[in-house]
Structure formats: C-alpha cells, structure tokens
Amino acid sequence: MNIAVIGTGMTVFGERWEISPRALARDAVKQAITDAGCDKKNIQALYVANMLSGMLGMQGHLGALFAEELGLSIPAYTIEGACASGGLAIHTAVLSILSGQYETVLVLGVEKMTDHKPEQVSSALMGAGSNEERLAGATFPGLYAILARSHMEAYGTTVKELASVAVKNHYHASFNPKAQYQKPITIESVLRSSCVADPLKLLDCSPVTDGAAAVILSKKPTKHGITIIASQVATDTLGIAERKSLTTLIASTEASRNAFTESGISQRDIQVAEVHDCFTIAEILALEDMGFVKKGEAGKRMSRGAFTLGTAKQCVINSSGGLKACGHPVGATGVKQIVEITDQLRERCGKRQVSHARIGLSHNVGGTGATAVVHILRKETYA
Amino acid sequence: MLSPVKIWRNQKHIASRLGLTGKIISWSLIRVPPDGFSDQAPYPIAIVELENGSRILSQVVDWERDVLKTGQKVKTVVRRTIETTQDGVIPYGIKVKPI
Predict the structure, then answer these.
(1) How many other CB atoms are there within 10 angstroms of residue A156's CB atom?
(2) What is the pTM for the complete model shown?
(3) Which of B38, B55, B93 sits opposite A135 (nearest CB)?
(4) ipTM score here?
(5) E strand or H helix that includes residue B58
(6) Which of A180, A210, A263, B65 makes the best surface tag, with the fewest CB within 10 Å?
(7) Under an 8 A CB cutoff, do A153 and B40 touch?
(8) Four-way CATH pick for A3-117+208-218: 3.50.50.60, 3.90.550.10, 3.40.630.30, 3.40.47.10
(9) How far from the centroid of its chain's Cα atoms is residue B40's Cα?
C-alpha cells in the first residue's frame, strides 16, 4: 500500500474560547491545502473525525456541516470511534482511495471541548465506555488508574516511572509552538499534583483541549515522498471488566502486529512514533503492547530517557508533546498524530526535529483500548 | 434524564447478580466524579471477580481505606446508582461491599 500524504495542517491546540469549531476547521484545512499546493476543487471526499459534538454541542451531521463550511459539495462522512476517531477517519480515507473511488481526499479532525463544564465533558467522554462503567460512576482517569494499579502490582512499575512519561512529553512540547502546554515540568511537580483517581494525579492526565488537524491524502505521489505504508484497526471489549488481561491492550498488539506485517517494517526500523498517551500509563502500555520493549520494561527505560529527544538511541516517542502536553482534542488527536509524523519525516519540526527520521508510526486508542488504530509512514526516495 | 424504560429493562437483571461473593482484582478511588455522582465522591470503583468466574466493574460501598486492596473479599448488594431529577425514576444497581 502506498498512499501519499500530500498536505498537513493543524491549529494551535489549547483553550480556544474565542474561536468556533467552524473556524478551527477552516484554519487547519487552509494550512493543509496550501501545504499540498492543490486547488480545493481537487478534493473529492471529506472525512470528519469527531466524538463529542452530538453529545455536548447538540450538533450532528458534521460531514455536511464542514463540507458547507469549506465550500465543497462533495461526499462527506463523519467517523466516530471515541478518542480513536481521528485514526479511524484516516483509515477510512485510505480505504476509499484504495477502493478506486477517489484519488484525493481530505481528513479533518476537530473537537471543541472547553465550551462545556468539566463534569459534562467527563460524562460525555464516558460514552466511549460500557453502560456498567457509567453506572458505577467510572471516569476515564479511573479506568486507566485501574490498569495502572494492575501494571504496578504485576511489574513493579512506580509512580515516578509514570511521572517520567509526563516530564518527557512536556519537555518535547516546550519545542512545539502549537502545543497546549509548552512548559517543562519535573517528576516532583507531577507527584505533588492533586490526585484525580488513585494512583493517577492531575499531571498524569491529558488535558481538555480545543483544536483541529487536517491531512490531504492522494493516490498520486508528491516530491517529498511521504507515504502511508500500513493502516490497521483492531477492536476489543468496550468495558475493561470483560478483558482477560488488565496489563495489555490487546487491540494495540493486534493492530500493530498487522501493521508491521503489512509494511514489512519492524519496531527497530522506526525512528519516531506518536503513541496514545491519554494518561501516563497509556504510553507505558502502548510501548509494551506494540513490542517496542518487553512487557514490564517501559517504565524503567522511560526513566532513563530511552524515548526522549536528545537521549533516545533508537526511537523518539511523542515528539509533539503527545496527548499529555500538546493537548487532546479527542476527535482531532489521531489526525494530528499523522500531521506530526509527516512533519518529522519532512524534517520541518524545528527544535523538536528527530534527526534522520525516515520511518514513523502513529498509534491511536479509543476508550480504554476498545479500538486501536496503527499507521506506519515512510519517506520514499525517488531516484 | 434517565429513560424509565431503560431502567426498567436493566433492573430485571439485578436479582441474578445479588448476594454473590468475589474478590477485588484492581481498584481506584474516584476523586473527580462525572455528572450525577458528585454527592458520592470520593468513591472507590473496582474490578471484581465473582465466585461464578465472571468479572464486573462496580462501586465499592461501606469502605474504609484499608479494604481497598487487591484480593479483598466482597459481596454484591443492591444500591442506588446515579443521581436523578426530582420527578425521575430512582435507578438501582449492583455494588459491592467488603466482607
């Protein structure tokens, strides 16, 4: 499979009180179209990734809404898969090109979260969980906290090791002008932050974010040669109680294994990856479940700087700052991951550029691992 | 607003899960609750393996800090779940208490 990423764009992520979802979308799409150097008339279909608009904003029918906003009367679809909506939309767009139906399509991820009260946002996000979880008063921090405790008891992972994920991602975000939090933090500040759901503290959690990201995909290659060479999706039970293991997200394992097989790439070939760090434990699970490290080792290696810009020997994880520090506008996140990997492979990431990045991976999770989407991108060299 | 029909449908399954013993597999203490749970926070939630081998995610009631541990024995009880509106149906569900 060879689908070219011909243009990318994203808004500044953060608390964007002054700006509407429509304006966020316009900003990201305009950047992507300019970047691709194409006329918007060349875009044949639109895939919109969003999770919360219907529940929080009472606005559905986003395909038609954003097609109208962009002045395009083309086929348009909304793709929802909780926090993996963005990755799923990219996957669906890739399939639509592979089917032969379209040559060039636009994927837009957009989420406006700060217009609503935190407890409303928390309840709406629980739409990604099971009914049993909602009736128990569970929250996503609470569910990931349960996974964290199981991991700590099984493998001796410590709260300091968890905190080192947040510290790394804030450090990376300090070089990203579009990140929500561009301020480095320390292990101590994570451990001192207030407890949200034991053992997870405030600074173990990704924030509530407004933002949009856009990607234009095409069958025709471009001169910079960034292509998607694997696109895989896997699912698991909606609730965590039904799972055999509380220390592995099977959907991540399966989607990544299929992506590695599809592309003929192995973990060792990857220099840069954006993984789904909605909570610090989630990044630990992602690295282990996708086989970057052995089960139980991610925390220790994280503390030693094995995935940090400047000290990583093999692969830098979440150069954008990840969900933790770049921000997590849920529907936009999976699209933004493709934006970051593409920009890294095009060597236009400024101070956070990973040197000699040629192959990158993105990993997007919905709920507590009920959906996982993995993409592998490569920089092709044309003779 | 909770749908009375949905409550009626779901509550038919409660009886078969009452009075079962089990043990805590993992847990957390929710300090920042979602809508409808603020009167109960902070409250523990746990993955519980029941005697019949099935696992549930449930709130822990009648708890003190020292019962929040892996392996703690519990039994299922019926309790009110989420806050309702003044004229809404009161929803009940399964929770667990330490034994």
Answers:
(1) 11
(2) 0.97
(3) B93
(4) 0.96
(5) strand B55-59
(6) B65
(7) no
(8) 3.40.47.10
(9) 12
